[in-house]
Amino acid sequence: MIKNVILITIDTLRANHLSCYGYYRKTSPTIDRLAREGVLFKNAFSNGPWTPFSFPSILTSTYPLQFPFNFHLSSDRITISEVLKKNGYSTAAFHSNPYLSRFYGYDRGFDVFSDFLFTEERMEVGENHILQSMEKIIKKILNERTYNLLSKLRKIVSKKWKKLMEFDQRYIEDAGSINKKAVEWLRNVKEPFFLWIHYMDVRMGYIPPKKCLEYLKDFNSSPDETKIRKLCEKKYRHKYSRKQSFSDEEIKLFIDLYDAEIRYVDGHIKLLINEVNNMDLTYDTLIVITADHGEEFLEHGDIAHGPKLYDELLHVPLIFHAPELGKGVIDDLVSLIDLAPTIVDILGIEKPKQWLGESLLPLIRSNKKRTNRGIISEVLHDGRRKICYRTKKWKLIFDEGGNRYELYDLERDKKEINNVAKEYPEVVEALSSKIKEHILLENETNRKKIKETIKKLKKKGRI
Q: How is 405-443 classified by DSSP, letter by letter?
């Protein structure tokens, strides 16, 4: 009987760079094994292309812009940790992503919440002056309720704040350090438990640990650290100026580094799983592996992730592993808004009425196909929405700022290069109606009205 859950989220991990999703390099032997022994969802998509827009769906089964957005996790959202804690679970989280810190409300429902940036341990190593400045800035931001004002505030913060929010490696814990804390907690925790681990190593923009560089040899790449540092600094400058250009050789090096980081994290997942096995927790524990979003390597003109809704940023891995669940590969479209409902369903716990996702357990148990189920992903750009609605064949992207539509035939154009909106106006009309329904839902300010709208839409089978 499954009674424990380990949720592993990997920052910036696109699905098509894992071997189990068809990648030509052997980047992920441990994840591949878990996928073979468990259930792999081939077509899982994030509901947002950037951490602050993806994690609300992962942890609260609500859409990113369903509540007023200011980077803070709205108190109106119910987190999976709160649900499980209420049902008698011991809960813990270990990570070092500032967007997921306690200052943004992500500690709710956790008995132990280690976000590293703001612990006494961190204050003792000499960064207290930076952290105190950050705390003042964040608290000021949290008192403001509009994205436009938030954007203005972010423009005037110090260079140290920007550098920290770019996750300079001095402020990031690597997978080994995260594992150490998680394993120590596991050795002393009482069952049942819910453990959330978020690995940051795959995220580009800072110099990878030296141990990770060893994996570059496996990918026929062995640049020196000086070259890597210069390239990462160039990428950082590009993020704020957009004036940098990158050669094919530099893009190859970025991809080599990215793949090496994946291999590095995969190795630490193996070590974590070994510890779980040594504690005789294997048969009682559900292990879920996913990512908040992917990464772009100039597919649509950029190196990074941000306010874009193409598949290199949205297509993420999703794997459920537990002996009781059996094995399988599921081709249906699913999104991360379904993650929390699936976990509580597996545990036999009723999901909150506010959660909008559907449990994937019926798919896992019977492999029945879902019908008429599209996926919404969204983000804010300069205070205006970008929303996409996708089916297996079509993806429609609506840019509220430019009042512009992009339509892609995913069966013929997997790389989303040719905008065919003018050629298929009837498809645009059909899919845009779904987007309009979604916007109407999110524009409701009264929670009672939101609930009534959700019930009506569900009754009509529109969500």
A: EEEEETTT-TT-----TTT-HHHHHHHHHHHHHHHHHHH
Residue 463 or 151, more confident: 463
Cβ contact 250:230 at 8 Å: no
| Helix (H) / strand (E) containing 4 | strand 4-10
Share of the chain above pLDDT 70, in %: 78
Residues 300-315 as b/e (b if ≥16 CB within 10 A, e otherwise) read eebbbbebbbbbbbbb
pLDDT of residue 281 exceeding 60, the answer is: yes
- How many CB atoms neighbour CB 443 within 10 A? 11
Least confident residue range of 46-60, 94-108, 162-176, 224-238 = 162-176
Sheet holding 375-381, edge to edge: 375-381, 384-390, 394-399, 404-409
Any idea what DSSP says for residue 243?
Answer: -
> Do the Cβ atoms of 45 and 314 come closer than 8 Å?
yes
Q: What is the DSSP letter of 361?
A: H
Q: Give the least confident one: 128-142, 250-264, 433-447.
A: 128-142
Any idea what DSSP says for residue 205? S
Of 428, 432, 433, 450, nearest in space to 441 by CA: 450
* CATH code reported for the domain at 4-373: 3.40.720.10
Q: What is the dihedral of CA 234, 311, 306, 356, to 10 degrees?
A: -150
Question: Which of 286-300, 316-330, 367-381 has the least mean pLDDT?
Answer: 367-381
* CA angle at 449 for the pair 443 and 453, rounded to the nearest 5°: 80
Contact predicate 432/396, CB 8 Å:
yes
- Beta carbons within 8 Å of 385's beta carbon, 6+ residues apart: 65, 378, 379, 398, 400, 439
- Domain 393-463 sits in CATH 3.30.390: no
Beta strands in 30-87 (DSSP E): 39-45
pTM of whole model > 0.90? no
Strands 328-335 and 39-45: parallel
Peptide bond into 68 cis (omega under 30): no
The pLDDT, as a whole number, for residue 454 is 65
> Is the pLDDT score of 362 beyond 50?
yes
d(CA 351, CA 184): 30
Domain regions of the chain by residue span: 4-373, 393-463
